[in-house]
Amino acid sequence: xxxxxxxxxxxxxxxxxxxxxxxxxxxxxxxxxxxxxxxxxxxxxxxxxxxxxxxxxxxxxxxxxxxxxxxxxxxxxxxxxxxxxxxxxxxxxxxxxxxxxxxxxxxxxxxxxxxxxxxxxxxxxxxxxxxxxxxxxxxxxxxxxxxxxxxxxxxxxxxxxxxxxxxxxxxxxxxxxxxxxxxxxxxxxxxxxxxxxxxxxxxxxxxxxxxxxxxxxxxxxxxxxxxxxxxxxxxxxxxxxxxxxxxxxxxxxxxxxxxxxxxxxxxxxxxxxxxxxxxxxxxxxxxxxxxxxxxxxxxxxxxxxxxxxxxxxxxxxxxxxxxxxxxxxxxxxxxxxxxxxxxxxxxxxxxxxxxxxxxxxxxxxxxxxxxxxxxxxxxxxxxxxxxxx
Length: 389
Known about the structure:
This protein is mainly alpha-helical. The chain has helices at 2-63, 68-83, 88-159, 163-225, 230-254, 298-320, 338-351; strands at 259-267, 276-286, 289-292, 326-330, 357-361, 375-380, 383-388. The strands form three sheets. It has a three-stranded antiparallel sheet with strand order 1-2-3, covered by helices on one side. A two-stranded parallel ribbon has the order 4-5. Strands 6-7 form a two-stranded antiparallel ribbon. The mean pLDDT is 77.
């Protein structure tokens, strides 16, 4: 559409000089027509008035019929002149010759002027007629070119789409271009934002890699310090010693009838797995066989707890390079039968040399005599009171 409009504009610009020339020729033709009309009017007026008058004057001059009153007066004067002896004929001839010469001279001059004017007008008319013919030829040529240009313009307009529709389409295309430019600007802004986001992403990726390295290190530390890491190794190294000491103490408490065993690995329930899982189970054996810790009564479980805790305390103290100074036993006798209590007291007496102080807390009165020193606590109306025995 832009190319078609541009082509039509070029054709219109090409026709503009022709239209200007046509207008100029039309103006000149109008001026020449006006002058020709004026000349024709003057010629017609001359033919109507001047030429007949010239013929009339010429005829009167030839027939000497002009100015009758003046001629009669002149004859009367001539008669008087004859009376007085005046040569009227000579005078009259002279006068007539003078008057005739005067009027003829004037008429001759007028005729010469008229002839000169007529010749000039005829030449001017001839020139104007030539110019008119030339202008008519030029006008015909330009009219032909104009008609051809109009025909080409009409053909071009017929072949070209509707200019109004083309303008509407052009306006719509301009609006679409403006909208696309706005979308392009928005897209460019998004590209800038995406570039900035890419930079941030690279920075975040670098930070993520750094964090992943830190996480890997922390996971390694977590595994190292988790139950399967260093503590597990320490436990695996310490368990045989703790197991031996616990069995030694438990042998005293049970008369050799109970022994403890620590299990650190067990099979998965899924039989398809060949590896073992890390665990810490306690199996206790007695005269009835080997059972889990949960299968024993409260008194038996207390003996196992006492033996394991005491063994664990001794191993920790030994590894720390220190000596256990105090052993505190809070209750624990209520779940034991008489034989169990007696064996627990014997076990306490057996390990008492390993501690600077052994404290036993109990509410059972029959155990008071089992220990040489005790602190009795009694409740009164004013509060609790202590008494060292």
